[in-house]
Specification:
Elements: H1 3-10, H2 14-30, H3 32-52, E1 56-65, H4 72-79, H5 96-101, H6 105-112, E2 115-118, E3 121-124, H7 125-129, H8 134-137, H9 155-172, E4 173-176, E5 184-191, H10 194-251, H11 262-295, E6 299-303, E7 310-312, H12 316-337
Antiparallel strand pairs: 1-5, 1-6, 1-7, 2-3, 4-5
Helix pairs in contact: 3-12, 6-9, 6-10, 10-11
Length: about 350
């Protein structure tokens, strides 16, 4: 048993402290070569960690999405039976559900299949990312290339795409609300390739917001298209009634005879009905257009990813320092507790 262990067993007095200090210094000096070797070995292993886990780049985008509220003028119009719709009807994608939408299988796979310009070439994101994944480094699946169209996928492509989606959603993509009280959403992508980080961040935000807007305004756009078709039909009927009314006036030979004016009166009534119908549909169409604008949320990009991107992970000298400290600590342990 070493002297240090003996002191620990029987308890250290004040006199022992000075002896212990001298003993520690003596042991370190006696075994400085061993400690130096372990320190250098640890620094080398730490530097090797940089190869196993290279530095990564984080691309972040912050967006602000308008929250839906019912205003006073909407309540006033509702009292008269007029509904112009509100933002985010039915609460779809409200709150955390919009945050979760970014990480869904549909959104991630849709973005992976997008073509973007990277390093001067137009490439599919999944094919650009694939060599960095463990499947792209596996000899059995290394040669896999994803087709441009999803309809040309094989079962192997579908399985690999699902695995890559899980990898991206779990380790690469991070979506959250920095402040629960604010309508800000932060979307960040962290990867060793800075060009992929930036391109994927911009692509998934664009795809998700496009799908979000389409879903929010789908009903309002459908109503608007129906009203536009009805307005066009009403306008055509009003034009026909106007022509018929003009022809009826021209055909009246003698205005003294009332029987000759029946067609004239009938065409005039049809014109009035067609005109009233056109005016009513036009009014509803205007309200529908207001409702569509109201249901279309205001989305603002607060922050975009720009080069140089934020680096995550340790620098090479930090790896060496951590490895050296760990190796030196192990060398000191060897010097103190092992018999020499």
């Amino acid at each position: 048993m070493s002297r240090f262990a003996e002191l620990l067993q029987r308890g250290i007095t004040l006199e022992d402290v000075q002896e212990l200090q001298r003993w520690l210094i003596l042991r370190v000096v006696q075994h400085w070569k061993r400690i130096t070797v372990f320190t250098l070995l640890g620094a080398g292993l730490g530097l090797g960690g940089l190869i196993l886990k290279p530095a990564q780049f984080k691309a972040s985008m912050i967006i602000a999405v308008e929250e839906g509220e019912t205003s006073g003028w909407q309540n006033l119009l509702a009292q008269f039976g007029l509904d112009v719709g509100g933002l985010n009807p039915g609460g779809i994608f409200e709150g955390e559900s919009l945050v979760q939408l970014f990480s869904t299988r549909y959104m991630v796979e849709r973005t992976l299949l997008d073509k973007v310009h990277l390093n001067g070439d137009s490439v599919q994101l999944v094919n650009y990312l694939y060599p960095f994944t463990k499947w792209g480094k596996d000899s059995e699946t290394q040669a896999v290339v994803f087709p441009a169209s999803r309809t040309d996928f094989t079962p192997e492509h579908d399985s690999l795409l699902l695995e890559i989606k899980n990898y991206v959603a779990g380790e690469v993509l991070d979506v959250y609300k920095p402040d629960k009280k604010l309508s800000l959403i932060s979307v960040s992508v962290t990867h060793e390739d800075k060009h992929f980080s930036k391109a994927f961040t911009e692509a998934i935000v664009a795809n998700t917001l496009e799908y979000f807007l389409e879903s929010i305004t789908e009903k309002a756009r459908g109503n608007l298209n129906v009203l536009r078709a009805q307005r066009d039909s009403a306008k055509a009927e009003m034009t026909k009634a106007l022509i018929a009314n003009a022809s009826a006036y021209d055909n009246v030979v003698n205005p003294i005879f009332q029987s000759g004016q029946v067609d004239q009166y009938e065409s005039f009534v049809n014109l009035q009905v067609a005109n009233a119908l056109y005016v009513e549909i036009s009014k509803n169409l205007t309200l529908a257009e207001i409702g569509l604008r109201k249901q279309t949320p205001l989305i603002q990009v607060v922050e975009r990813p720009n080069f140089p991107l934020q680096r995550s992970g340790y620098e090479w000298w930090q790896w060496m320092l951590l490895g050296g400290l760990a190796g030196g600590a192990f060398g000191i342990y060897q010097a103190l507790f092992r018999k020499s």
